[in-house]
Amino acid sequence: MAVGVFDSGLGGLTVLDALQRRLPDTPFVYFGDNAHTPYGTRDAEDIFHLTCAGVTRLWDEGCDLVLLACNTASAAALRRMQESWVPAEKRVLGVFVPLIEALTERQWGDNSPPREVAVKHVALFATPATVQSRAFQRELAFRAIGVDVEAQPCGGLVDAIEQGDMILAEALVHSHVEALHRRMPRPQAAMLGCTHYPLMEDAFRAALGPDVAVYSQPDLVAASLDDYLTRRPQMRGPGTESDYLTTGDPIAVGQKATLFLRRKLPFRAA
Known about the structure:
single chain; alpha/beta; Rossmann fold; six-stranded parallel β-sheet; four-stranded parallel β-sheet; 12 strands; globular
């Protein structure tokens, strides 16, 4: 048994890379639903069923613990999955909470009432489906009060990254930041609410300027999972080998993954 990592495509590889660096002795099974990417423009019902199918495939691989390394799936499907679908002996986690905990400086499992925090004006950059779900604002409200969140749907950005067109991706980042600035001229912090976006973190930082704190997910999620597995070592399982699955063309996906991570990943058909 290994820890499963699910994503709609390639973006979750940024989280997988951080996980493998943080937990080098833990085997991971990565599942990329590349045949159906991107999720960010799909409706919630479609996202739910696609995510359930991917998680089921990871359970079939022996992964009792699955991390949704996809903000769209975490936003649109995770709560429903946890409340009505995930069996008692399995666990499915998302990637929003570590980001919000970092912003609000709260420790994992801190269930005290929401309180005032230093940051009052936050920009959220995410897919249209994540923005529409308002999951980020909902989770933030459990932990902080008095925070103004301005969400910017970044249409087209995931597609450009998946296609490897970084010139277009950089242009889209600047366009979306400009659109955000028209509604929130001086954000104090910016949350990159999609696991594809760390690949464009430098572009976001340049467009936002040096006075904006930029929060990116991979290292935060890796630290959170490390803590989770320390407290629940039974979820780590006895597996020894990592594996990489895709609903797309394994050769094409592997080539793109190599461009993303600068190392080869041997994808196979899911």
